[in-house]
Amino acid sequence: MRNIGRDRAQSEVIGSLLLVAVGVLLVGVVAVLGFSLVEDTNRDPTTASPSSSVSGATLTLGHTAGNALPAAETVMILRGGEDTRRVRLSSLSPVAGSAGDGVSAGDRYRLPHDVIQGELRVTVVDEEGGAVLHDQQFWITDGIAGELITADAGTLSDFGGNYNDPSATTTVSDDGRTVTVTGNKWQLIDKNYTVTEDTVLTFEFRSSKEGAIHGIGLENAGTGQNSGRVVRLSGVQNWGVNVSDYGGSYYQTGDDWTRYEVPIGEVYRDTNNLGDADSLVVVNDYDGDEGVSCGSHDSEYWNVVGSESD
Asked: Minimal CA–CA distance to 109: which of 57, 144, 63?
């Protein structure tokens, strides 16, 4: 019996030593994997931050921050109408920065985009890593180019500064270029934009039934209502900045699609609201005491573009 007990004790000691050894081995493996993951993260091309801007005839692409990109593996895809053009950055000479095998922060490229009227979409892809690094849509009208502000139904949010009727609806169509709001709702659309005195919002609007306030502006989610940030296009309530005070025509029900060029930079300069915004807000308001029927009024916005008038 004593021999059996002694053998069992030795087995327990050996087992404990084996467990310690396995633990040390696992720590070593985790450490190696950890260092490997850090290196992979540092090499991850998605840490790069390209940006693009468009004038009436020229596209400018810049690398604003992050890791260098391999020029031979970085491709810019330009889509305008039915045409698609692929441009490898190694085939271009930078207008700022230095030419070489890599594209570093501060490098900037420029080339004609050939779109006279309509949409231009700029996508930057890292072919080696299979990552989309940048995707931006622009709209060009009469030689003036701006950023096309499109909506994604999955990322819409209600503006917290207003009561939004649960029965109100928002519909996104035409690849995000058309947003229709019906019922009492202030709808936020994700869009980071720095509003300067030269900022202009261009879009088309229509409504089949007048509510209290039909309006548009650039807002920050989580803030309260600010009448100086909403340009009122239609409605029976005297709230917000009347578009007719800045050269637009006050919308009349039945006018169908009406094009607006709102100098939102001038509006925000006059109301002390210049600076950064994180959302486009479209307002379809009904508070219940303005003499209009609840739930039947609507606002429809098409091709909203933010641009700088120079």
From this structure: 63
The residue extents of the domains of the chain are 1-43, 47-148, 153-308
**Cβ pair 45, 58 in contact under 8 A:** no
Residue 112: which residues within 8 A CB-CB, separation 6 or more? 57, 58, 59
Overall fold of domain 153-308: Jelly Rolls (2.60.120)
SS3 237: coil
What dotted CATH number matches 47-148? 2.60.40
- Whether residue 291 has pLDDT greater than 70: no
pLDDT at site 8: 33
Residue of 39, 52, 48, 50 whose CA lies nearest to 68: 48
Within 8 A by CB and 6+ apart from 193, the residues are: 147, 199, 218, 276, 277, 280, 306
CA–CA separation, 119 vs 124, rounded Å? 17
CB within 8 Å of 287: residues ≥ 6 apart:
184, 212, 237
Q: How many CB atoms lie within 10 A of CB 1?
A: 5
3-state SS, residue 158: strand
CB atoms within 10 A of CB 156: 16
Over residues 30-83, the pLDDT tens digits come to 333 333 333 333 344 457 888 888 876 888 898 988 888 888 899 999 888 788
Q: How many residues does the chain have?
A: 310
As to burial, measured by CB atoms within 10 angstroms (0-12 exposed, 13-18 middle, 19+ buried), residue 247 is: exposed
- Half-sphere exposure of 16 toward its Cβ, with a 13 Å CA cutoff? 5
